[in-house]
Amino acid sequence: MSIEFDTGKVADLLRRIAEVEILPRFRNLKEGDTRQKSPGDYVTIADETAELAITPELMKLLPGSVVVGEEATAENPNIMQALAEPAPVWVVDPIDGTGNFASGQEGFVSMLALVLADDILASWIYHPVSGEMTIARKGAGVTINGQPVARFTPPTTEAKGILAYGQRGAPGIAQMVDRRRASVTQVKSARAAGIDYVRMAKGEIDFAFFSGIMPWDHAPGAMIVRELGGHIGYIRADESYRPSLALTSTGILSATSRNIWRDIHDRLFRDE
What we know:
This protein has 272 residues and is of the alpha+beta class. The chain has 8 helices and 15 strands.
């Protein structure tokens, strides 16, 4: 099944929702506008109103599509089942990096991915403060602000990347990574997966590991990694990335090449 969609119209929608629902609340949150869904997992009124606003607009852009949003899924986890079904699915994270947003830091983005039968067709990562828009489309590469991004090339020095782990993810995974973190060269995470995936596209990092694996955090970045010639997979048995596996798999590792992926995987998870 093939579907028609306009990447430009989707990008314009992301910009409009950010302008109306997100930016007016940035550094302007009031008491009661932020809460924790679980320890360390923040949500603000901007997350909720942006998702409510964008959901009907996406369904209008692509009739017959459904929306899997982070906040809606928190209320009804069964929504995730749509990812492996025949209807097109919009995977939505209106504010990735909510902790940064809530504390007045600029490290947050709005993210979307379009998925059909568990296959990612396109993704959008928008930084509302700077206006930077990253778009990836299956078979068509990646652009940042309309400029094509070159495919990944081998690093000339030791591969460096981020290890983003903590309370999110399968039990024991944080301890597993912590035991071997010194075996890889680390740089600081942006505390927003979308920003870290764009950093990879820009050549700033060569790999990224995340213990949290929900599709709204990773489907947009997975499209970028694949279109630039990298590899992304779950750490157990090198399962190739599929959004629907988020409820049953453990940890996501992405890298600018399969060789780097295998090397970092072996350093962190060999014999685990």
